[in-house]
C-alpha cells in the first residue's frame, strides 16, 4: 500500500492513544470548532473529532502537520478537489467488503474486476489533478504524495491495468494448463493468456467447425457441469485472489487518503471562517520540556463562532510549570480565558493554527478539564463525593508533562475544605510535572496556590465595568460579596 504522509512523517505511525477525552472536548465547546470544520459534511466532523482526541505529543509530528497545512492553505482548491476524488473512491469500500468476503473464485474475480474498473477513472483523476499544478509544494508531506501518485498511477501504468482488466473478461473463453498428478488429480495449474480482440460472429453464435479437442457437456449432465465448474474454479483461484488483493490495496489507499484529506479540508474551512471573523491566526511553535507558555492577543475561537464577534484578546508570558490560578469577581471572563488557553493548546497539538498573534508552548502528553457538572440525579452520592470521584478519575488518566484545567473545583464544599484538598492535590500534580490552571472564587485557595505559582485576575474598570482582560495580579484579600452587592444595585 502507498504510504500517505499528510499527518505524520514517513515511518512514524499515527498514535491512537488518548490525548484528551470526550468530556474535555464538551467542556471546551469543541462542537463549534468541529461544525465550522465540517461545513455540513459529517465525515469531516468525524475525522476532526478523532484527530482532536488522539492529537500527537511529539513536536516533530506537530510541525510536520503544520507544514502540510500551510502548504494546503496555499492550494485550497487542489486539496478540495483531491478530497472529492478520494471520497468517490473510498465510497466503494462498502461494495468491496461484499466482494472480498469468502465466495467462489469466479464470483470473487468478477466482483473485483468490476470494482477495479470503477476505480481507474479516480486514479487517473488524481494523477491528472497533480499534473495540472504549476507550482511546487513547500511541504514534504504533499511532495511525497505527489511523487507516489506519479510513480504508481501514471498513464502508462493505468493503461496496463485497463488492459489487464479487459483480459479478465475472458471474451474468448478461459485457457488453462494443468498436468495430471497422483490419483489422476490436476496439479501445476497455470492460467494462460488468451487472445485479445473482438469476438468473431462464429464465437458470438457459439458455432464450431468440428474442433477435435472440444468436449461438449449435455444440458442435463449435472455431474459434468459440476466437474467443469470445479476445473474453472481451480484455474481462477489464484487470479481471483490476486485481483482481490489488488482491489483491497487500492480501496485502502482511497480510504486513508480520504481520511487525511478530510482533516486538511476541515482545517481550511475553519481557517476561512475564523479569518472572515477578523480573528488573529498564527502557527504556534511547539517545544519540548522547556516549561514555556507565552501568547499575544489570544482569543477564544468558539465564542467568536457563536456570537460572530471578535472576543477580547489577552496576553501571557510564563516560563514555569508552576500552577496558574485565576481568581476575582464573577463575570470577568475567567472561564472564557481558561477555555481559550485550553483550546489553543488542543489546536496546537492537533497541528492546527491558533487564534492568536503569537503562541509558544510545550507539547504535552495529555490535556484534561474539570468543569462543574449537574447533580447526580440517581442520588447515589453527595455533591462533594461526586466531585472527588471525578477528580480521582481525571487525575489517574494524567501522566507527567500533562495539562489540567480546573474550573471552580470543589465549589460544593466550604472554602476551608476546598483549600485544604486542592492545595495538596495541586502540589502533588506539580511534583509530577503536571501543570494546572485553576479558576476559583475562593480567596484563600487562590492565595495558597499563588504562593508558588502565577496569579491572574480579571481587570475591572473604576466604575466596576468588566473589560474581560485577564492580567497578572495578586489574589484578592476577601470575597467578591461587595462586588455582587453593588452590581445588584444595593438595598
In short:
By secondary structure, this protein is of the alpha/beta class.
Describe this structure in words.
With 491 residues, this protein is α/β, with parallel strands linked by helices. Among the domains are: 58-169 and 249-276; 285-487, P-loop containing nucleotide triphosphate hydrolases (Rossmann fold, 3-Layer(aba) Sandwich), CATH 3.40.50. Helix content is 51%, strand content 13%. It is built from 17 helices and 12 strands. The strands form 3 sheets. A 6-stranded mixed beta sheet has the order 8-9-10-6-11-12, with helices on both faces. β11 (454-460) and β12 form a beta hairpin. The longest helix is centred in the middle third of the chain and has 55 residues, at 222-276. Residues 321-489 form the DNA mismatch repair proteins mutS family domain. Keywords: ATP-binding, DNA-binding, Nucleotide-binding. This is DNA mismatch repair proteins mutS family domain-containing protein.
Helix-strand blueprint:
Elements: H1 22-27, H2 30-38, H3 42-53, H4 59-74, H5 76-90, H6 93-99, H7 105-131, H8 140-152, H9 155-167, E1 175-180, E2 186-192, H10 201-204, H11 222-276, E3 285-287, E4 293-298, H12 301-307, E5 314-318, E6 324-326, H13 334-350, E7 358-362, E8 367-370, H14 383-397, E9 403-407, H15 415-431, E10 435-439, H16 443-450, E11 454-460, E12 466-472, H17 481-487
Parallel strand pairs: 3-7, 6-10, 6-11, 8-9, 9-10
Antiparallel strand pairs: 1-2, 4-5, 4-7, 11-12
Features:
Rossmann fold; four-stranded mixed sheet; 12 strands
Radius of gyration: 32 Å
Number of helices: 17
Q: Return the structural class.
A: alpha/beta
The amount of helix comes to: 40-55%
Low-pLDDT parts are none
* Shape by Cα distribution: elongated
Quote the beta fraction: 5-15%
Mean pLDDT reading: 85
Question: From N to C, what is the helix and strand string?
Answer: HHHHHHHHHEEHHEEHEEHEEHEHEHEEH
CATH C-level name of one domain? Alpha Beta
The CATH architecture of one domain comes to: 3-Layer(aba) Sandwich
Number of extended strands: 12
CATH superfamily of one domain: P-loop containing nucleotide triphosphate hydrolases
Largest sheet: 6 strands, mixed
CATH names the topology of one domain as Rossmann fold
Distance between the termini: 75 Å
What order do the strands of the largest sheet run in, or round the barrel if closed?
A: 8-9-10-6-11-12
Pfam families: MutS_V
Keywords: ATP-binding, DNA-binding, Nucleotide-binding
Protein name: DNA mismatch repair proteins mutS family domain-containing protein
Organism: Ferrimicrobium acidiphilum
